[in-house]
Amino acid sequence: MENEYDIAIVGTGPAGLSAAINAKIRNKSIIVFGNKDLSSKLIKAPKINNYLGFYGITGKQLKESFEAHISNMKVNITEERVNAIYSVGNYFVLMVNNKCYEVKVVIIATGMEYTKPIKGEEEFLGRGVGYCATCDAQLYKDKVVTIIGYTKKDEEEANYVNEFASKLYYIPMYHSDYNLKSEIEIVKDKPIEISGQDKVNKLILKSSEILTDGVFVLKESVSPAQLVPGLITEGEHIKVNRDMSTNIKGCFAAGDCTGTPYQFMKAAGEGLVAALSAVSYIDSNSELY
């Protein structure tokens, strides 16, 4: 069925891509969420000497090799933001903008580039704080909404939400020419704290305050604990076993998000292990699907 897969992989660095190709080799249907530009860290490396078989290769060259590999294996990347992943019985539901995907297994390979939460963000999640404006826009009909955007593509969500809200504030965390509807108020200030009582009623900025009924924080990625409710972490890292399994059955993790060392080769190896473990998990639980 449409939007149903064996394995969802979140992340397109070495860990996510390694997991993708190894899952595909084993004939599992996969969907990979991430950036088609792949890991931004790759192109910053002038020389890589510890990736076996690629002595002296530049980050740019390694990135091009990754791109050629996944292209030849017809691994497609879905450039949509995963807002939440829920374990529901024997499968997972991924909330992606205004769509849902159902998968048997999830592999988290998000790296360590997510933005730290604003004070109050986690406390009011689901009580006025959200990560998908297009998903929840209708809940804020005729209300005051504030959107914190981190990339230019977030302007599309702001324009959409503006159709429902009585007033929309847009706080860009980037510099650009803004393609926003004229009635949207752009506030160039730094968010400090989201506050309220039972639910959000205020966003405190460095130089001002906004009285608001809801705040959408449109990050490129969120911390693993926010992304997957119930996931056990150790500090900023996901706690995993040697087979890259987490505390949630059917959820695996690989790469920088599982801890140091932050190395391309380690990430690729963990992606392989996570894929093999995911395939084994699906095959050994075939009676559940």
UniProtKB/TrEMBL annotation:
Single GO MF descriptor: oxidoreductase activity
Domain (FAD/NAD(P)-binding) ranges: 5-271
Keyword Transit peptide appears in the UniProt entry: no
Keyword annotations: Flavoprotein, Oxidoreductase
Classification via Pfam families: Pyr_redox_2
Coiled coil residues, start to end: none
Protein name: NAD(P)/FAD-dependent oxidoreductase
Lineage, broadest ranks: Bacteria, Bacillati, Bacillota, Clostridia, Eubacteriales
